[in-house]
Amino acid sequence: MKMNGRLLCQLLICCFFASMAQAQTRRNILWFDATANFKRFSYEDSIKNILDKCQQAGVTDVVIDVKPITGEVLYKSKIAPQMLDWNGDKRAADFDMLQVFINEAHKRNMVAHASMNVFVAGHNHFDRGVVYTSHPEWQSLNYTDSGLVPISKIKTKYSAMLNPANPEVRAYELSIVKEIVDMYPTLDGIILDRGRYDGIQADFSPLSQQLFEKYIGKKVANFPSDIYTYKGKQREPGVLYKEWLEWRASVIYKFFADARKVAKKANKKIIFGDYTGAWYSTYYEVGVNWASKKYDPSKDYNWATKKYKQYGYAELLDLFTTGCYFFEVAKSEVNKGDAKAARTEAGMETAKSPLYTVEGSAELSKDLVKGAVPVYAGLYVDQYAKDKNQFIKAMKMCRAKSDGVMVFDVVHIINNGWWDALTEGLKGNL
């Protein structure tokens, strides 16, 4: 079989970028949210212009969100509905945003990842998404102080999260992982986001009860009170609380194991990545153990069983970015006044601690994965909206205390006109 010169050249280029992406450990990662940038990235020239700025600033990797929280996708899918409009703006159905990003990133020697919000399929503030149309039965059933409530009815939550234990949900999400990697053979990586439960209140459906009973090998006499009960608005653990936490961690672990197999089968060179919050001490609330199997949380935390460590999934990842979403950068800043950034992420608490700083959370993340995967400490730019210098300092701290930095999101860099700050933070020393 003869191969023409142009095809051979393209093949060699693809192989080069795949090997370069895998070998790289130091990364400056910039995230591109789907809905916040919907209009802007509906045009090729706009993508090229922003990537030029990224290259000049020192960005090495771009993460393109192709499955936002509605459950729609930003490419021509045979599985999920395609998002062709958002907030009054429309996009041409044949515009392949992700392929443009991949091609243009590679021209600028940058690595291109696609991200997908996994266990979520609805935006509660817009009553939009898969749980509002085709699959309302997939949504999480939350155990609140008012009883069992479908998450689409809890309008204080903007993400209509799914039940990760539901086999139909898992199969659906895995099929999307496969589709993305199959459709874009020159894509360097795929990063899973919201690969978790909604929170400690989720999921208390009859299906989850059945699956939990199968896991522990016995019937639950009093469900859900054997898991926990409410005294006013305060939760009080029941007799099976720790086992419930362990089971939820096993659910997420097994999904990540399956997702990795699916992605690697579609493209053995794909970088398999994940985003979580860095606040490990309370991240069990969302059913996630992102640590290494070598770390035993039962020695440090009373919520963890001896078996909980088996569901640490750091070893399943090629890339791990963790949200060090705190205004305070250095641990020494903790006692210099009240925390300035609202802590609203899933599983977060409001306590003051050196661990709730960029420095402390980055160090903890590196420690708990035990070298199993490179760690990229992440920042939420909007937390520094009134203090550019603190943002610059935070980027430098991430780079000093982890294998690089992840900045969320490019929309805040654009809106604030902070390309100079991004450049200084990505290139300067602490």
Automatic annotation (TrEMBL):
<keyword id="KW-0378">Hydrolase</keyword>
<keyword id="KW-0732">Signal</keyword>
<dbReference type="GO" id="GO:0016787">
    <property type="term" value="F:hydrolase activity"/>
</dbReference>
<dbReference type="Pfam" id="PF16373">
    <property type="entry name" value="DUF4985"/>
</dbReference>
<dbReference type="InterPro" id="IPR003790">
    <property type="entry name" value="GHL10"/>
</dbReference>
<dbReference type="InterPro" id="IPR032280">
    <property type="entry name" value="DUF4985"/>
</dbReference>
<dbReference type="InterPro" id="IPR017853">
    <property type="entry name" value="GH"/>
</dbReference>
<feature type="domain" description="Glycosyl hydrolase-like 10">
    <location>
        <begin position="47"/>
        <end position="283"/>
    </location>
</feature>
<dbReference type="Pfam" id="PF02638">
    <property type="entry name" value="GHL10"/>
</dbReference>
<feature type="signal peptide">
    <location>
        <begin position="1"/>
        <end position="23"/>
    </location>
</feature>
<protein>
    <submittedName>
        <fullName>Glycosyl hydrolase family 10</fullName>
    </submittedName>
</protein>
<feature type="domain" description="DUF4985">
    <location>
        <begin position="299"/>
        <end position="424"/>
    </location>
</feature>
<dbReference type="InterPro" id="IPR052177">
    <property type="entry name" value="Divisome_Glycosyl_Hydrolase"/>
</dbReference>
